[in-house]
Amino acid sequence: MAADGEAQAGGEAVLDGFFDRLNPDMCVVTAVADGELAGCLAGFASQCSVRPPRYAVWLPKNSHTYRVARAAQHLAVHLLARDQRDLAALLGGETGDEADQFERLDWREGPGGTAVLTETAAWFAGTILHRTDGGDHVGFVLDPVRWGEGRAGPLLRMSDTLGTSVRPCVD
Hints:
By secondary structure, the protein is mostly beta strands. It has a domain at about 25-45 and about 65-125 and about 150-160: Pnp Oxidase, Chain A (Roll). The chain has helices spanning about 15-20, 65-70, 85-95, 160; strands at about 25-35, 35-40, 45-50, 55-60, 75-80, 105-110, 115, 120-135, 135-150. The strands form 2 sheets. The protein has a 7-stranded antiparallel sheet with strand order 2-1-5-8-9-4-3. A two-stranded antiparallel sheet has the order 6-7. It is globular and about 40 Å long. The mean pLDDT is about 90.
């Protein structure tokens, strides 16, 4: 094991120990473009500016949600309560290429034509300002335009999905 401050070689494995310590809140990202709806569970998301307020979500290039988001002008980001593992399993365990996930979801049209899930802890819709290639994921920097809240309670975190079939953006 490397000492504090000492670099460790190893290519892709260099930051594995660091990443293993992270436990981010999980969110659901929904995208709508050309009449097609998509959504997936995402673990790579964060506020990225205070003034002006900005938020970034990262979607894998091989996902259905990414393919729809490329043509979208807005995205919606939803936080899940810890007891919403079933919703996480639907959007983090099934591919939008093979099943219509939205036929089993309660949702409404939101700002910019986004799909807002109605039973989440909180949500916001944002205009896509930038797309940034980060390797196997693309970051979407969002300018929030509206938000809402729903369920109270602790949020679903990455550790809540370990040992289950729930995985971020499998679609």
